[in-house]
Write a structure and sequence with these properties.
Largest interface: A-B, 61 and 62 residues
Oligomer: homodimer
Helix content of chain A: 55-70%
Radius of gyration of chain A: 21 Å
Distance between the termini of chain A: 43 Å
Amino acid sequence: MVDSINKVAVSPMSDSPIGEALHQLLHAYKRALQQSYQARGIDFGIGHIRSLKVINAHQATPASPCTARQIVARLQRDKAQIARLVKDLLAAELIDKHDNPEDRRSQILRLTPVGEAMLARIQEAEQHASLRMARGLSQDEMHAFVRLAKSMTGNLKP
Amino acid sequence: MVDSINKVAVSPMSDSPIGEALHQLLHAYKRALQQSYQARGIDFGIGHIRSLKVINAHQATPASPCTARQIVARLQRDKAQIARLVKDLLAAELIDKHDNPEDRRSQILRLTPVGEAMLARIQEAEQHASLRMARGLSQDEMHAFVRLAKSMTGNLKP
DNA sequence: TCTTTTAGTTGATCTAATCAACCATTGCCG
DNA sequence: CGGCAATGGTTGATTAGATCAACTAAAAGA
């Protein structure tokens, strides 16, 4: 029995809430970030900002300097797009290019002092948005979330 | 001690991995979905598909029929964009419009049989991608993830 | 009735993403 | 060494998605 009690159109109920929840969350977060950025007069898209962050991360380990290549790998975006983002960041003088002694095709990207200052403001803005997002969640929960997200990303990568 | 062992450029380390992890995950998931769709010959963007799903969800509760309005509310997209998505779905004959006796400005959207069949295939594709994404995770973990995602989305909404 | 909202549509514009073609350099292999 | 495929980067073109403004028609409210 129960078989035809309610004809629930197509799905037997409870869609696949993961994708839905994910999409919803990212959209909301993107908007919150943009807001937080704009409130601080930071006038760049998310791509620009993420690129800055990658460059900064490499700055910390001078052994592996940052070229456009690294950003492409980290952000998994088309290299054409990265080239444009980098061009913008150069124009804004947030970063500069240095010849790469190891490979004359590529150039090493580094934050300028202005870029570092900008990044500091960006991180402030992010923390603001993150705190807002995490309101009511414990550290453990946040940590668990990130762990799960990374795990799932890993599953999808190959 | 340890205080100034490495000068980590700007951030004191550990960025804000939440945003990063989130972005990474959504991107990977989006690609996996697209792949899964394409492998099944489903030739629509994610927006179209999500709209179909909203219409289907309303189908289950005949009390509240689906108009473009509902899709706008559920997906939180610009109504212009939804209008275009709906137009495409109509053109593909996956849905049809019926006069709304309650309000002559709007029209009720319903899946056609073709639309239902399409949706079934979509759900198959999604389950494939979701299973892939969730490989190695327990039901509890998946559930926790969705709960946290929804909670965070809620925090950001206002 | 007159006014204000609301649902939906269209046009224009903007950004992000993607693809293909291309140059310079590098690395490899005979 | 000389040729050739692979790599890093750049540019142009195209596309999809999102967003904004303007507008119609109907509804709701005063």
